[in-house]
Specification:
This protein is α/β, with parallel strands linked by helices and about 350 residues long. It has 2 domains: about 5-130, NAD(P)-binding Rossmann-like Domain (Rossmann fold), CATH 3.40.50; about 135-295 and about 325-340, Dihydrodipicolinate Reductase, domain 2 (2-Layer Sandwich). It is built from 11 helices and 15 strands. The strands form 2 sheets. The protein has a 9-stranded mixed beta sheet. A 6-stranded parallel beta sheet has the order 3-2-1-4-5-6, with helices on both faces. The longest helix is centred in the C-terminal third of the chain and has 19 residues, at about 315-335. It is globular and about 70 Å long. This is Gfo/Idh/MocA-like oxidoreductase N-terminal domain-containing protein. It holds the Pfam family GFO_IDH_MocA. GO terms for molecular function: nucleotide binding; oxidoreductase activity.
Length: about 350
């Protein structure tokens, strides 16, 4: 049986990523698109020959509530501005729809915790997944498998991202861009998810963080750079450095080092080094194709609906932990580098 699905939100990401991912999934059939404004919803809907719903102008039988009342729509993908996302998640779940909502899970940890508690306490049968595509990146999946194969105790790690995002571009990649640290939250959770996935594969979790930020020269000034030192539960440490204000350098890498080898994820490859019991070293590198993980996360969501078993990579608690990590780092900076414990 095909799963009827609707897209709530008609922005660039919904059109360029969610729509192709739904079309590529044989388990899903797109039924409708919703946006606050008729023109935005109509644009995608007419191209795909599906129904459209909107709030403005207000017309009978065209509202979000009308869409959620449809029995042939079993699930929704929510890709709306962050300040209205929590409300739509609640409405859709309360209407009996399975939900795939975009990251971050909410605008702050307190809001996210309240939302997750509401969802779990109600013991809802509807599936709620958070669309964190970094957990579905081929490089993260391969590196996680390699870390499990290498084994050993994590002794060190580092995550580095350097790039440049202009003030205008920040408004496209972050719907919280008006906040001074908006891009660090909205985009930083991606890298929190990537690092946490790899550390989990190596049987480690983060215990505490300390961090500092720096401000760009834009007007108004935006906090675009975050430097953090992280301690793991086993006592080892590492670093987490991301910057969206680096004009002349573009770098992305996550390296996890254990006492039996190391794994390094870059944008286009995964490199592994393994030491066996005899001290022999083997090294290999696997090239990666272009795949941002969105199609895989949508496929996993559909399979979860079909099976009734949640994909652990998409459960809201994972997205909450990603957001909590970034928020604790920013809180540390606000308090002059105070060590913040991860609960």
């Amino acid at each position: 049986m095909s799963i009827g699905i609707a897209i709530l939100g008609a922005g660039d990401f919904a059109r360029d990523e969610h729509l192709p991912a739904i079309q590529a999934c044989p388990l899903l059939t797109l039924k409708a698109v919703y946006s606050r404004f008729k023109s935005a919803a109509q644009k995608i809907s007419q191209e795909e020959n599906v129904d459209w719903y909107y709030d403005y102008p207000a017309i009978p039988s065209s509202s979000l509530e009308d869409l959620l009342a449809r029995e042939d729509i079993h699930a929704v993908v929510i890709a709306v501005p962050l300040f209205v996302q929590s409300e739509l998640i609640r409405k859709a779940l309360a209407a009996g729809k399975h939900v795939l909502s975009e990251k971050p899970i909410a605008e702050d940890v307190k809001t996210a915790e309240t939302l997750v508690e509401w969802y779990r306490c109600a013991q809802r049968k509807e599936m709620w997944s958070v669309a964190e595509n970094f957990r579905y990146l081929p490089g993260i999946i391969l590196a996680s498998d390699q870390l499990r194969n290498i084994g050993g105790k994590v002794t060190s790690f580092c995550l580095e991202l350097y790039g440049f995002v202009s003030e205008q571009e920040q408004g496209h990649v972050s719907d919280n861009a008006s906040h001074p640290s908006g891009i660090l939250v909205d985009t930083g959770v991606h890298f929190a998810a990537g690092l946490r996935s790899l550390l989990h594969a190596a049987s480690q979790e983060i215990s505490s963080v300390t961090a500092f930020t720096s401000v760009s020269s834009s007007c108004p000034p935006m906090t675009t750079t975050l430097y953090s030192a992280i301690q793991l539960r086993n006592g080892s440490g590492g670093t987490f450095n991301i910057s969206f204000g680096s004009d002349y350098q573009t770098t992305f890498a996550i390296e996890i080092i254990t006492d039996r080898g190391s794994v390094t994820v870059e944008a286009d490859q995964v490199a592994r080094m393994k030491i066996d019991k005899s001290g022999n070293v083997t090294e290999d590198t696997t090239a990666l194709g272009l795949d941002n993980g969105v199609k895989a996360e949508v496929q996993a969501f559909a399979e979860s609906i079909q099976s009734g078993v949640a994909d652990e990579r998409g459960v809201p608690e994972q997205a909450l932990a990603d957001l909590r990590l970034i928020q604790r780092m920013l809180e540390s900076d606000e308090e002059g580098g105070t060590v913040k414990v991860m609960l």
